[in-house]
Fold this sequence. Notes:
By secondary structure, this protein is α+β, with helices and mostly antiparallel strands.
Amino acid sequence: xxxxEVENEEGGKKKKSGMLVIIIVIVLFVxxxxxxxxxxxxxxxxxxxxxxxxxxxxxxVKGKAKAQSPxxxxxxxxxxxxxxxxxxxxxxxxxxxxxxxxxxxxELEQNTDLxxxxxxxxxxxxxxxxxxxxxxxxFEEISTAKGKERLKDELVGKINEVLTDGxxxxxxxTDFVVS
Length: 179
């Protein structure tokens, strides 16, 4: 009879410890789901905040009659500004083997004709900016359409930093070969 009581006590302890483990696992699972939900909410709210911040400066530029140069390219194809052609570029891309290159011809869309004289004076600086930007890119970064759009945005921003009489609205690749 004493042996039966010992067996019941051990069986009861096993059941209690098994239930305790199950409860701990459930609590940890619920906690993990809660943390994942908070992280997802933070990520989605921060991306909305960034888009609102990006939209606000564009509205200000329109309201101020474009007194300052924009950071983003314009896509108003109905009102294309004067074009400033640059000589072709043939450059090595960033790669492990050094065998990748880009050959392209670029035209800069100006916001006003008055910018042409400044571009003539600063053509060496502008070419240097384009060369440094392109040679820092890999084949994978510029071989896609999305990559070319990002490259255009980057070029517009960097070129506009050195201009004072106006700004570049857009960059057009009239020839673009990557190998």
